[in-house]
Each structure stands twice: as C-alpha cells, then as structure tokens.
Amino acid sequence: QDSTVSQPVCPWRGRLTMDPPLELVNAIGISGNVASSLLLHEADDAAHIVYPLGSTLVIRNVEDASDQIFLRAHTQAISCVTMSADQTRLASGQRSHMGFLADVIVWDISDIKAPAMLHKLSLHKVEVQSLAFSCDSSFLATVGGQDDNNLVIWDVATGMAICGSPASHDATLVVAWHNTTPFALVTGGLRQLRMWSFDAENRKVRPKEVFTGKEVRDFISVAMDPSDAFLYAGTKSGDVIKVETGSKRMVTAGPRKRLKEGVSSIQYNAATNQLLVGSGAGELAVLSTEELAPLAFTNVMGGVASLALDSHGEFFFAGTVEANLYLVQYDGLVAELKGTSHASPITDVVFPRAYSELFASCGGSDIRVWHAASLSELLRIQVPNVTCNAIAFPPDGTSILSGWSDGKVRSFGPQSGNLKYVINDAHRLTGMGNASGGTVQINGVTAVTPTNDGRRLLTGGADGKVRVWAVSKAQQVMVASMQEHKGPIFSIAIRANDSECVSASADGSCIVWALAGLTPYTRVGVLFAPQFFKCAVYLPDESQILTCGTDRKVTYWDSTDFSQIRVVDASEEAEMTSLHISGDGTFFASGSADRRGKLWSYDEGVAYCVGNAHSSAVAAIKISPDEQTVVSVGREGGINIWRVPEGMGAA
User: Fold this and answer.
1) pTM of the model
2) Rounded to an integer, what distance in angstroms lies between the CA atom of residue 302 and that of residue 284?
C-alpha cells in the first residue's frame, strides 16, 4: 500500500501545507499607551523608529512609512520596550493572563534589516512593567507588574537570570541603569525611589532608599545625567525631583508650575545639558538642569507616553496615548504630526466599490479614510462622546454612511468630511439583550447597508429592528420597520438586485427579508442555530449564504430552502466575528476573537493561510476589490494589511 496519503490540492498553492502564514505587508497603528515605547535607531544609511502595535513590534523607516519590518513572537499585548545604548539589542516585555508567566524577548538588531530573536526570558508573572539594558549592554534589568513586583537581572549573552529581589513594598513602575557603570541602577514607583548596587560575582542586588524629605511622590519616569552625578525623577504630581546620587538625597524639585497629569516621560539631552519632559496632558517642555525652570513649552494631542531623542539633540519623536506620532524640532519645540491611528478599539473597515486605493475604518468617536499605498490618513471625522459601530460606502461613493451608538445614522462627504444629513432616532439607544437572558454590550445603530441602486438604506439596531429608509440629501423617510429579531443586529447583506436581504442577529437567527415583490418587507425564511450570529454574507452568485458566530464555525446555507449545506470548524478557541467573500466566490476571509485572520478556499472549506499579528479580537476583515490585499482591524486599534497569495486573487 502506498504510504503517501493524498491531501486536498489547492489550485494556487500546490499541495496543502499546515496553514502557511499570511504575509503581513503593512500595519497602521501604534500602542500609544505603552510608556517609553518609542525608540529611535540611527544608522549610517537610514533612521528607523521602533514601536509596539498590540503584540507586534514594528521597525519603520523614518522617511518611508511603508518600509516596515515586523517582529512577531509575543502572544499578548506588549507592555514595555527598550534598546541597548550601542543599538544592537532590543528587548520587549508583554502582558499575560492572570497566573501565567509573561515573557521578555531579546532581539538582535545589529542588522536592522534582518532582526533575529536571541532569547525568551520567562520569570515574571502576569506582566512585565519595565526593562532596561546596562550601559555596556551586557545586563538586562526587568521589573514585573503589580502581581509580581520583582526586580530581575539577566545576562544578555546567555539569557540566564543572574539574581533577583522584590523591587519594593509597593508597585514599581520604572527601572533605569547608570550611564557609567553596569553595577548600579535605579527603580521608581509608588511612594518610593530606590538606588541599587549590583554585585555580579555574588549574584546580589542591594537597595538603598533615596531620601526625599517631606516630599512623598509616585515616581513614573527617571533619567540620569551622563556622569551619573544627578538623577532626575518624574512624578505623578507633575514635578521633577532632582537627586544627588552620591548622598542619595533630594536637591531640588520643579518646575514651580507643575505639569498637568504627571511627568510621564523624561529624557536628558546631553548636547544641551537640559531636560526634555512630557506630561500626561500632552505638554512638552524643556527644563534647565539647575533650577528645573521651564525654558520652552508646547502642546500636542494626547498625553505624552514616550520621547525618543536623536543623538545630536536636534530633534525628537513624541508618541501620545491618542496614537499620534510627532516629529519635534528641539529648538523652539516645533511639532509636526508624522503619523496617526486609532487609539480606541476599531469596529469596522470598508472599501469603496471597485476601488482599492483607499479604505475607511471606524473606532471610538472617529471615522478615518486611509490611502492604502502610502498608509497616510486622508480624512478624519470625529463626533465626540459617541461610538461609531458601522460604516459603509454607497455604490456611487458619494458619501460615507455611518451608524452610531446614540441611535443616529450620519452621512458625511467622502472628501470634505462635512455632515450631509442625520437620521435621528433611527434605532433605540439601548440594546434589548438576547435569548439567553444576558445583555450584549452594543448600543444604537449596529449595521448599515445601502442598496445597490443607492436610493435606499438598510439599518439594523441594538433594539433588534431592521429598518428601510428612502434617503436623499433633502429628506430621509422610513419606508418599513421589520421587527422579528429578539437581539441586536450585527450585519445585513443584500442581493445584487435589491430584492432580498439577510440580517444576522444575536438571538440565534438570521432572517431573510423580501424588499420587493407582492409582499415586501416580510420574512421569507429564517436560519436557526444555537449561537449569536455575527456575520452573514451572500455568495456572489447568491445561491448560498455564509454565516459565522459564537459557535466558532462557518456555516454554508442554501439561499432558497434555507437548509444547512456544510459546517466548517473555523476556530478552536474563540468566536468568529467577520466574513468577506471574494468577487468570484473562490475564496473568503474570516476574522475571529482568537486574534487570527484566515483565507479559505470556498469549495473545499479549508483554511490555506493564517494571519496572526493582532493582539486582540479581529473586529472586521475585508478583501480589497482588486483581490491583491486583505485588510483586518483589531480591537487593540491596529490595522493590518496582508498580501493575498499569488494565483488566489483576481489575475
């Protein structure tokens, strides 16, 4: 008997292999809330910035935003990043689940174009709070989060732990080494600032408290001057404490007018012997090192989480918690916005019909339109204090249709971003729960789909109603309200001739509605399954309907008699969130809460490629109209652009 087992053959990949990875082409986003996470790597040929995006480390060319390298080895969101003084080593720590170990990964970046993983260090529980390389790059100090709170010193060459100690009685937030010796370091945290001596031979670290007199502070950032004579510690109270390292006593505190919401980031500029500080309220300031008096001041959007100075002290990058990236000229603090992304969970992404050059995404109170090739933001629309749940382009692309958590549908101009019209009270504000008795945390308008003739608009809401609107710029009239669902509507798909639509709901049913004919706006058929349906789409020839939901399966249904044709296990551990079928129906993309995007052969029901770069649930996934790329958006605020394998998309 022949020992080779015949496997399904993929028309575009040769023989089937074990779920090869999708190639990540580009990523938009920055985890702005990770403290001191923005790093600047300067080489002779090019400068790169390093920053985390969810569980991925991104190395990006400063001049060309699309020239990106991705380091993917973390399993959860990255919580801290640092780079050695000689710029050959990179270390990143992550968060983990309660009770589990959180990894620190050391990377070799001596060749920035071909970084490699050196060590995976596992000792801290739940979270790595902060880490730092010694001045000669031979040691790495790591501090665990509040559930761990240990200081551990590692040998960078071997990846072995040398020694460790409880960092303090209360939570420790930051660690830094001295600039002249690899045997001294400092930690800061809640109501404590400690200087440590490191004895490598006897494998011991010994702490000494810094005496700050009557001043009781929470220390969240530290910087040393080049000679290690003085230590500068930023506090949650908004001032900087200057400490003499020899006597370990406080010398002075400033500025007199404190920065708002704490000194979240601090850097010593050796070229000018000044301090550069950023605050949690978006303030940037240059302070003198003697009296800590402000010499220059400016504001940026969002609290400053990280600062990255260049080696000459002439300019620096600033990253904010609102995921904005600024390039700032040091002299005069002239700030220029260099990059931006969503700072809150992204809920939807959509391409205009038959146009792959740009796409739109929505998350929090923002709608953003992106240029796919350059990754630049073309348009930003903001509606304060409400959440955008769904967006859509009409077939002619003359507006951006959006559904919001305040129960309103808003239409905007696609170039100007001006408001065209609002449908007030399109759906009830609060959700109605679901069949199992719990409530689904989604409010207002939850699905928006325009008809193919562009004259009508279908909306679904958290109240379980599907409504049809006759829309024009002058007036918007409700034509019908279809009320059979008992749970929120998550998606609506419509036939090409606008005769029927299917709505997917959290009540365990997908209902097919007639939109034309003798009995319009009535139920034609229903698909039942013991799950919350998250998405339903028509096959391009409309012979079948594809659904997914919380049962972790993708189900094929007949669109005439509404019977199940095939059920495919799509995820082993988490619910499915999104589906999108290619134009010819040969393959489809799926997104799930296990952080993966997948490409499937439609006929075989086999996943051929898996993309794993998000650190949170994939909220939506779309295949571009030219079928060359797939765009997925995640709850962590990242937008990932994947390449469709050759022969899979349209020729």
Assistant:
1) 0.86
2) 11
